[in-house]
Design goal:
There is one protein chain. The chain is mainly alpha-helical and 74 residues long. Helices cover 62% and strands 0% of the residues. The chain contains four helices and no strands.
Length: 74
C-alpha cells in the first residue's frame, strides 16, 4: 500500500505543479507568484487553471533578438 502511494505521489505531484513547471521552463517573470498561487490555492481547480493560463501567457524574463545579418559590399 505504501509503495502504491509513493508511485502515485510523483505523477499527481507533477500534475499539481504543472503551472509552476511550465512557468519555470518558459523563464517567466512571475515564477514565484505562480508557484505561491499554485501551492496555496492550486487544489481548488479553478485557481489551478488560472495559474496554468498565466504561466502559458506570461512573458519570459529575457527576450532573445537576433542581430540582422550584416550587409557586406564587395
Amino acid at each position: 500500500m505504501h509503495v502504491l502511494f509513493g508511485l502515485l505521489l510523483i505523477p499527481f505531484g507533477a500534475i499539481h505543479f504543472l503551472p509552476t513547471i511550465v512557468a519555470a521552463l518558459r523563464n517567466s517573470r512571475h515564477l514565484l507568484a505562480i508557484f505561491l498561487l499554485n501551492l496555496c490555492f492550486g487544489w481548488t481547480g479553478i485557481v489551478w487553471v488560472i495559474a496554468l493560463v498565466w504561466a502559458c501567457t506570461s512573458e519570459p524574463k529575457w527576450v532573445y533578438e537576433y542581430a540582422p545579418y550584416p550587409y557586406r559590399r564587395y
